């Protein structure tokens, strides 16, 4: 069996740290699935506009290909302390490092970079290889009665998120008209508390950083308050 990617994801997540743990949690995260030339045909997407969401079948490519696997893993949801079977998790280190995400699609676009499918609410690293696209079918794919095991609800922080004067000035500089939704993206990512689950072992650590798009985001956590202290371009 041999699979070739049909395209690659271009997303705001240029580093694994900060990617939400499930799709749909950060709606400000828009991305493009850029099709390879041999698959860049509008007729291959005929009637897809009748569906609001799609399944994206992809490969965990960074550090996972050829890395091997273990029968048990320690999910972040359990603080990295308890182990579960790899097939009871969505961990990237699997016998075949394949991921599956249901995301909103916003239609096709063809520009100088070729044909692309616009997506919203992604949880995929920039450059992720995509194996397939399938329509999300609500009557079959939505199962409200299903049990969620240890993953019963998204991890959202109750911290209030503020921007320092310096960070606010940086926002105005880098996204003056708000078209890139940089403020919303930062707020929604930090609301998911991207810190590893074991961070409660280090109660004195207050300063953190992550990368979104071409920006390094710095923030501090103090007494229930998250303050974004800086936004720096890496270009």
How are the SSEs ordered, and which strands pair?
Blueprint lengths: L6 E4 L19 E6 L17 E7 L12 E2 L10 E2 L12 E14 L2 E7 L8 E7 L2 H4 L18 E4 L1 H10 L7 H10 L15 E6 L2 E8 L2 E9 L2
Parallel strand pairs: 9-12
Antiparallel strand pairs: 1-2, 1-8, 2-7, 3-6, 3-8, 4-5, 6-7, 10-11, 11-12
Account of the protein in words:
The model has no long low-confidence stretch (mean pLDDT 89). The chain contains three helices and twelve strands, in the order ββββββββαβααβββ. The protein has a six-stranded antiparallel barrel with strand order 1-2-7-6-3-8. The longest helix is centred in the C-terminal third of the chain and has 10 residues, at 165-174. It has helices spanning 138-141, 165-174, 182-191, and strands at residues 7-10, 30-35, 53-59, 72-73, 84-85, 98-111, 114-120, 129-135, 160-163, 207-212, 215-222, 225-233. The radius of gyration is 19 Å and the shape is globular. A hairpin with a 2-residue loop joins β6 and β7 (114-120). It has 235 residues and is mainly β. The chain has two domains: 7-141, Beta Barrel (Elongation Factor Tu (Ef-tu), domain 3), CATH 2.40.30; 160-233, YaeB-like fold (2-Layer Sandwich), CATH 3.30.2310.
